[in-house]
Design goal:
RNA_pol_sigma_54_DNA-bd, single chain, sigma factor activity, 20 helices, two-stranded antiparallel ribbon, RNA_pol_sigma_54_core-bd, about 500 residues, alpha+beta, DNA binding, nucleotidyltransferase activity
Amino acid sequence: MSMTPRLDLRQAPSLVMTPRLQQAIRLLQLSSADIIAYVEEEVERNPLLEHAAGDDTDPGDADTPDRFPDPETGFLDAYPGAATELPLDQDFNTHRDNDIAGAESWGHDDAGALAAGSALIWDSGHSGGDLPDTGLENHADHGDTLLDHLERQITLDIPEGPEQWIARQLLLHLDETGYLTASTADVAAALGLDVDAVDAVLKRLQAMDPPGLFARSLGECLALQLADRNRLDPAMEALLANLELLAAGDLDALGTLCGVQHDDLDDMIREIRTLDPKPALRFERLSIQTRIPDVYILPRGDDDWQVELNSAALPRVIVNNRYYATLSRSAPDPEVRAYLSESLASANWLARALDQRARTVLRVSSEIARRQSAFFSRGVRFLKPMTLRDVAEAVEIHESTVSRATANKTIACPRGLFEMKYFFTQAISGADGEALSAETVRDQLRSLVEAEPPDCPLSDEALVSALKSEGIDIARRTVAKYREALGIPSSVHRRKKNRGKPVRS
């Protein structure tokens, strides 16, 4: 059989990815910050494009819905981190009399007011000597933000799963000076978790660099830094518990409470002065609230939720057709007219693409809110299993479109700020045939371990039985896999750790 080359013509349908289609797909998966930057570039480049009237390209300046607390500053009733402390505005390198001459202000606007309850957070640029040496220059690059710095540590030091999630929720309540602005009880209530679980994660966050972060008061901030130096002894604890005496200059009473002599108290005060009362200020000021929600999910009734797009994260453009008509009539050069026609087509396409992107994100978010209404009402234990295909079939779009529409997007709800991808979890079969979210099972497993007797930790087999009694029927190897993913050691290691015995590797 001879083989000879020949030409054939054949008709067949195929999908052609035009440059505009590729660009529209890329726009869909951009984050709010990236889409704002892209639109800003297009407005600068295209003479026929303008920002819509009232459009603000800075999402951080926009107001959140009236019926929804500000997700940037916290979803809870926060309290000021150091509001109960009195200002330390005295120079304590003086003689030990009640005349505290040469008192200094440490940079806070209210530092001169010695009334009880006046806010105090020292300024790192105080005039009382050199800046505190916290070693931050060895850890944070120039221009590094506090959010970036902490995100890296959270990823490395805290296991994936509920603990990382709790850590990132606490990160939302960190102010620009490094203080936690919400109580763990309020955070736990908002997330539908036990306070002990949030306290455990907070303890790990307080051990991160730089020391002093995530404190809820000035005294706790200073205590964390002293503990990092291995200098938090009972005398220092007594001093930090009576900072109001230090502010009032009543050093005799303070020395009595601390149980130290005057010279020792002077040394303690000098060491306090080397600490950093605002451990986050050496980072860039854009350090905390850089994640802007793309969608708000607002309560409207029992298990009924309203979905709204964040207008601040949706740049709006208009096409100046009048300007195009004026230029076209006065442009004799064919190349200029061709450029104007191309600019008009590009402007119209961008306006349509942004509108389509917003509609797609809204449809997908609405379906997420409908399927996960129990989670928004009652917490992570009620998170339902959900896949990209489930949402795609419900809103009648392709699964890959759902994946792009949820990429780099966040949802703000009364329970916190969540990545859209968080709501997509695999299903675990329950004892009664009901499908459970894998995230729900992991959370239940963590709760069982936290509640176990210290002297008798639960084995994997015992955890299987305990989960089965609560309607979760999974294999022992699945329990072991989830336990390891949560960073929970085996029952043998937990028992030895509780007894204070070393564990052989």
